[in-house]
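Quick note —
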Amino acid sequence: MKDLIILKIGGSVFACKDSDKPKIDQKALERICREIGNAHSKIKEKSSLIIVHGAGSYGHLIVKRTGIDKGIKNNEDLLALAETQRLQNELNLIVTKELAKNGIPAFPFQSSDHAVMSAGALKSMSVDAIAGMLKIGLTPVAYGVPAYDEKQGCSILSGDQIAPYLAQHLKTKKIIHATDVDGVYTADPKMDRNAKLIPEITSKNFDKIKAGLSGSVSTDVTGGMLKKVTGLIALTEKGAESQIINGTRIGFVEKALLGEVFGTTIRR
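Predicted structure written out below.
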């Protein structure tokens, strides 16, 4: 069996999260896909890859405006849910097309058609198809999306939930999170110039630093850095290591895929 790497690319890196309409930073997307292609050509004999991307302006705007992440109240909410899914399908096709240009056998993977949420938490999701795709050499490309919730009708199945879930059920050794900051800081670096980068987080120091973690300063309905790190800490007990890097910096995604250590590492 090949080692499995899960690369999660935040929507803020290429999907213009703060835009008032669905928008892509095409140059950023092309660069990131080129970096993934370069790394994939060097590691594909020994490592399999799953890519999970965020929604950015293709999802957060509608969800924040309508509140469908808290549940379905009327027909307008149902229409908003359907439209959000359509837009994120569209985004996924754009991403996979660009990956294919760079030699990645990228396979669009819609997680919400077989996931069940419960009060905002991911209760179950089939991984058999993804395991089969990896076996034959495909690169599944999943993405965060509103999904069916058995208690409130709808909640957000975020990429920050999908990546750890797949890591746990497919015995992943490494998760790389590409965000728009250099890693985890003692405070929000976009708001506090005195914030300091934390190079390593473990279960031993997490309680001391989590007070400084907060939700993203941009439009985000998925919980921000605190929720992200909390999910990754739980995986360390199962042997998975995570790395949070700045995906907006040229070459960083490629270097992380090739094993270079920088940013913030979360390990046992």
